[in-house]
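hi! just following up on the protien thing from before. the input was this:
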Amino acid sequence: MSDTNPPTQILDSLEVSERTLLLKLARQALEDGVCGRPMSPLNLNVLSPRLRQPGASFVTLTSHGELRGCIGALEASQPLVEDVRQHAVAAALEDFRFPPVHPEELPFIKIEISRLTTPELLEYRDAEDLLRQLRPGVDGVVLMDGLRRATFLPQVWEKVPEPEIFLGMLCRKMGAPTEVWRKMKLTVLTYQVEEFHE
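and the predicted 3d structure came back as:
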């Protein structure tokens, strides 16, 4: 393994009460958005510092165990709680892979929140070195080629544990041929997540 590989970042884990509140607020935002209501105003001053601080998150929606939408941000640009609320609505209404969630689906939708560390550049020599450095089940991966970019959360490893297939699927998500990661040097970033769900 290359000694330039960034160490795993440690998130200051959220308290159970903070996770519970984020899930509750995500659910409220999801229901408001799907039902065409404006998002309820939020008083940040009554929230814990960790929820008020800038944070990057992905919100994943599933229905009957199947993916129903997933949208997020890789960089922190707003308070974590607002990031989660906005992505809950966007995952329901703006994921181009799926039709918008309808109100009658809401009882069957489950929410999963992933709170991200800051993505770090992964230095690697070639395709084989990249395979050696990836940590299935630990790292979320971002591939970048010019203006094209795609990411898989660490949870994707549960369904795609083979690094070669994982990278091929990520290339396809980016809009590139599945083998492009072998044939040219892409920009690769990795990050970790704190995941919790309903």
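Helices lie at 16-34, 49-52, 80-93, 127-133, 163-174, 180-183.
The mean pLDDT is 94.
cheers
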